[in-house]
Design goal:
mainly alpha; ABC transporter involved in vitamin B12 uptake, BtuC; about 0% strand; globular; disordered N terminus
Amino acid sequence: MLVAETSPSLKQPSRRHRWLVLGVSVAAILVLFVLGGIAQPEFATVYNLLTVVRAASVTGIVALGLTFVTISGNYFSLSVAQTAVLSSVVYAMVASTTGFFVGFLVTMAVCFMVGAIQGAIIGFGGNPVVVTLAAGAAILGVVLVITNSARVRLAAPVDSLAVLIGRSAPLGVPMATWAFVVLSVVCYLVLQRTTLGRRTMLVGANKRTAVAVGINVRGVIIAAFCISAVMAALAGVLTTAEFGVADTAQFPDLDINAVAAVLVGGTAIKGGQGSIVQTCVGVLFISLLRNFLQILGLSTGVQLLFVGAAVVLAVSAYAILKGARR
């Protein structure tokens, strides 16, 4: 495996290039913040920034998992919102009768299997966009059937730990935000400091060469989709624990926001390049942009239009930077 990690055909982008990409993302945030503050003074207030951070947590947790999928060379998953819905429903149903720990473990196991199945199909040659789109439809269909399209409330005997995790706010910051911070650190360490993380990068950089040097490419792809599904599941559990209800419509636009955060942060859509830090910066930018557009009173459709435009501009800018580096 030492050969795989030092093969010249699998070289990673230079440190200078990575810092340049990160700098562009940070500059975009600063420009948005300044212009937004000039146009709408309340946008730049501390209260609103805390609102942005809170709103970014769920999207951020999901985007962390998607980073592994994109870096592995599989574009992105279009089933993360449905997986989050599934986890919300399963957690509410199981935890309401067994308590937090059993409900949490069952939920994680179910969503882990959902990710593993998608990863296995894609690892054997399935198109990631088609497979995850179909999986998302199937997951949502199952959820609608088992809930009869109704809300599922988190009821007794949920223990005090579930209430603590979902509804407490240490230092005035919701638990979901703390979870995002902790998970960001964990994902950073996994991607940068572990064999799985290095192999994920290498598979995304050059899948054929990775196979040639003995890397289990299918195993890496399955792991990436399992991580993505587990992150989506955690987002669903935290949301249900906070609000006490699971709703099939409680994660609107989660797919596009998470994908946009990963791409705007600078992770290469073809894989092999990116980082958790870049994703966190992308999450902040997308959350700020959505918040600013909401303050302006623009409709959801217009907001999505701007998010899409931001993705196109970011991907184009990073492609130009990559071309200039050659």
